[in-house]
Specification:
The structure holds 2 protein chains of 2 kinds. Chain A is mainly α. Chain A is built from 2 helices and no strands. Chain B is mainly alpha-helical. The radius of gyration of chain B is 21 Å and the shape is globular. Classes of the chains: A mainly alpha, B mainly alpha.
């Protein structure tokens, strides 16, 4: 296992690359999900405001 | 049976379709990604070549080549959606273009980053103004420029058209990157970047490389479907169908 992690002494280079890859892709997915929640919340708020306006 | 392709050019229809396709793309991306990494790390030799071998760091090849291919391919997709948008004036095409761009920018950055971390142990330098590296850097600036231009214009339709034009003009960069390693005379253009040698490559390495490329491609489908749904919701906020959708999804 430790031999695998060491990658023949090039662990820093190899794992930096794959680490950066995982980090960027995960960050993109988290960002997309968060954005979707924000949009749904905003549209929901607008909708309720609109309905309150109509029923007045 | 006559199939009407333009049916899916309606954002309301495509919203549902993208929602159904997204989880499948994500699942495919995860499965093939796991297979590619397993194969790349456990079924390949530790060292390549003779007297001055590529040592373990060559394993960067899988993520490097996959993200570099995707960076070019997604730019072609971006330019194609932009062109379709300008020709047919379909709103959805522009939305797809805007949805693809951030993922393309991420893969371009990843290609440069991993290239740098491969260059350091094998060439002895993080960066060089080599034709391939330089043109890939310009591609990154094109993606960033496209996104910056789009977000700088408030009116969505004007932003779509202006940035679409930029995307199409920027397409000249892609063939330049593609052929930048085929320098006819190495004495005239100091190219550090290796030429493509797909026919000599070890079968296991090739398999892992192609599988990871497929995985990244599916990932791009997932993120652009997800992003296009966000954009559709925002832009169609005033319509009845979005209101009904909100009621269904319980958008609180």
């Amino acid at each position: 296992m430790s031999e695998f992690l060491a990658q023949g002494g090039y662990a820093f280079y190899v794992w930096s690359c794959y680490g950066m890859g995982v980090l960027l892709l995960a960050a993109e997915i988290v960002g997309l999900r968060r954005r979707r929640r924000t949009i749904l919340a905003r549209l929901g708020r607008l909708k309720r405001m609109h309905e309150a306006e109509v029923s007045k | 049976m006559k199939f009407n392709w333009f049916r899916f050019s309606s954002p309301a229809t495509f919203y549902g379709l993208a929602g159904r396709l997204a989880p499948w793309s994500a699942a495919l991306a995860l499965l093939t990604g796991a297979l590619a990494l397993y194969w790349g790390f456990f079924e390949t030799p530790d060292r390549l070549g003779g007297s001055n071998p590529q040592k373990e760091y060559y394993r960067i090849i899988f993520i490097h080549v996959a993200s570099a291919w995707l960076s070019m391919w997604l730019y072609v997709v971006l330019a194609a959606w932009s062109a379709i948008g300008l020709v047919f004036n379909t709103r959805l095409s522009y939305m797809m273009a805007v949805s693809v761009a951030p993922t393309g920018a991420i893969f371009t950055f990843l290609a440069l980053f991993t290239g740098s971390f491969w260059g350091r142990p094998s060439w002895g330098t993080w960066w060089d103004w080599d034709p391939r590296l330089t043109s890939e850097l310009i591609l990154f600036f094109l993606y960033v420029g496209y996104l910056a231009l789009h977000s700088a214009i408030d009116d969505a339709r004007r932003a779509d058209r202006a940035s679409a034009l930029l995307a199409i003009v920027g397409l000249v960069c892609v063939p330049v990157i593609f052929w930048s390693i085929n320098c006819p005379d190495p004495n005239q253009c100091a190219a550090l970047h290796q030429r493509s040698s797909m026919s000599q490559i070890d079968g296991n390495i090739l398999f892992a490389m192609l599988t990871l490329t497929f995985s990244f491609w599916m990932y791009s489908f997932y993120t652009s479907f997800h992003r296009v749904r966000n954009i559709i919701l925002l832009r169609e906020a005033d319509t009845t169908w979005v209101n009904e959708q909100l009621a269904r999804e319980g958008g609180a």
